[in-house]
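# step 3/5: fold
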Amino acid sequence: MDDTQILQKLQKILKSDLEAVTTVLVSGGVDKIDNYKYLVGQVFTIKRISQEISNLLQPKEQKNEQGTVIDIGEARTRPNTKN
């Protein structure tokens, strides 16, 4: 199993978990504010991790790892105007 397959499988698990937590929240299955806060925290965490996995699965915009080169033409120095 390669890295992409692992990440895709993890995405499916996270999606299933998100649906389960969302169902509990929407159906009124929370009886205490502490439980509500806990479930909202789970939703936030699952969505954050899912987004990071999506970012890893998408191809990079730049394949060149050398960085950006900016041509500034002739280098000129400014005269020091502070005296």
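# step 4/5: annotate
The mean pLDDT is 83.
# step 5/5: archive (pending)
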